[in-house]
Amino acid sequence: MTLRITILNGPNLNLLGTREPHIYGHTTLAEIEASCEERARDLGIALSFRQSNHEGVLVDWIQEARETADALIINPAAYSFRSVALIDAMKALGKPIIELHVSNIHARDELHRHSITSTAATAVICGLGPYGYIAALEAAVYLTGGGR
Ligand code: CA2
Predict the structure, then answer these.
(1) How would you label 82-120 residue by residue, b for 16+ Cβ within 10 Å and e otherwise?
(2) What's the predicted TM-score (pTM) here?
(3) Each residue of 125-141: pLDDT tens digit?
């Protein structure tokens, strides 16, 4: 069976590549999506790639992934540091979850250092830039045993 992976992106990630390139680089989210689609094709993954600036929408999509995905990759962005709603939804998923950050949050300022959503993740990837998304796809294949 085809492995189904959902990638969710949180608030302001639609601005990637347009500002603060010293932290987030020059690659846009559309370019990241295109490279994920290409890698997913090679790996035989059916990919859903989405972004929202709204916490409740992200909660809805995590709940939807209970039925539609075998693993979840999520960059919760600013919600990483305050969203109990995302934690609850992630804990209810019952599937492998990889939390992903483009930057190395551990080397950031106090405000961006302590992800609380990672407590509900199976694994965390950070600091690899846009390549983190590819690494996360490969890790999702590993975590799911390569297919259903
Ligand atoms: O490094 C990451 O992927 C982050 O999740 C990105 C979040 C930040 O709050 C986290 O600490 C780490 C911010 C995403 C906003 O991205 C922007 C990109 C360009 C211009 C403005 C914001």
Answers:
(1) ebeebbebbeebebbbbbbbbbebeeeeeebeebebbeb
(2) 0.96
(3) 999 999 999 999 999 99
